[in-house]
């Protein structure tokens, strides 16, 4: 934390520990229990969890008493500071990356979509640095471990962020479809395989037709107006990044994509 932020952050911590103006008491954790004094006017507009939880009646003192035993105090600290305006809390914060899954799950539980995306992007940026360092050092096993483990924390709505991660890490390297298909056969690695397929297809300008699975080589400019289909198969409905990710994931398990005669030479490379 920089000295310039020390004042506002100290004021925030003081506010969260002051019961006088709070109308929510949140008890968080199991062993390391901590109480937070919160304010409905701030937390409810920003969190779907607090919006629902605060519908319960207040106690005699006018307080909403909430219990969150399944959330760790560290990740709740991050979430609450984020809600109260400290958007720099995850920047250059190694502890957030070390506790990535806890912070990510807390953001999901509290309905903090903007925090969830920010934490996901911060983790991807960190893992890209690690993967590229391993690749430069010739540590092939370590490189693939980072890619596989990172892509386990996936969501189709984060496709565009994972796409940037793969592009940054793989760069202009084209992997054989046989390797991608082998990766796809592992239950936990289909998302990674779909990302690799899209990246390789981008470099080769090859796409399986959206409708029939046959080969199509559109120009890059035409990709948004003719979304991966032959003219005879064309659909007027454009596809977004989430639909594209879902399509590519499914195409990895569609024999037609890999069995057309035009693709057989790629399988053997």
TrEMBL record:
<protein>
    <recommendedName>
        <fullName>BTB domain-containing protein</fullName>
    </recommendedName>
</protein>
<dbReference type="InterPro" id="IPR011333">
    <property type="entry name" value="SKP1/BTB/POZ_sf"/>
</dbReference>
<feature type="domain" description="BTB">
    <location>
        <begin position="22"/>
        <end position="92"/>
    </location>
</feature>
<dbReference type="InterPro" id="IPR000210">
    <property type="entry name" value="BTB/POZ_dom"/>
</dbReference>
<dbReference type="Pfam" id="PF00651">
    <property type="entry name" value="BTB"/>
</dbReference>
């Amino acid at each position: 934390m920089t000295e310039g932020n020390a004042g506002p952050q100290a004021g925030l911590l003081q506010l969260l520990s002051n019961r006088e103006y709070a109308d929510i008491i949140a008890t968080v954790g199991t062993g390391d229990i901590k109480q937070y004094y919160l304010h409905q006017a701030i937390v409810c507009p920003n969190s779907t969890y607090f919006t629902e939880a605060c519908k319960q009646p207040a106690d005699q003192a006018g307080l909403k008493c909430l219990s969150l035993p399944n959330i760790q105090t560290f990740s709740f600290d991050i979430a609450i500071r984020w809600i109260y305006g400290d958007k720099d809390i995850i920047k250059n914060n190694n502890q957030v990356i070390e506790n990535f899954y806890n912070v990510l799950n807390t953001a999901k539980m509290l309905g903090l979509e903007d925090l969830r995306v920010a934490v996901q992007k911060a983790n991807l940026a960190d893992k890209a640095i690690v993967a590229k360092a391993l690749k430069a050092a010739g540590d092939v096993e370590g490189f693939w471990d980072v890619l596989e483990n990172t892509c386990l924390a996936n969501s189709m709505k984060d496709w565009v962020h994972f796409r940037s991660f793969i592009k940054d890490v793989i760069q202009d390297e084209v992997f054989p479809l046989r390797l991608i298909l082998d990766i796809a056969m592992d239950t936990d690695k289909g998302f990674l395989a779909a990302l690799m397929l899209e990246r390789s297809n981008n470099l080769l300008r090859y796409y399986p037709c959206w409708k029939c699975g046959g080969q199509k080589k559109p120009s890059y400019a035409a990709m948004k107006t003719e979304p991966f289909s032959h003219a005879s198969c064309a659909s007027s409905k454009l596809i977004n990044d989430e639909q594209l990710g879902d399509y590519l994931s499914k195409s990895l398990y569609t024999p037609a994509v890999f069995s057309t005669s035009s693709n057989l030479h790629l399988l053997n490379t």
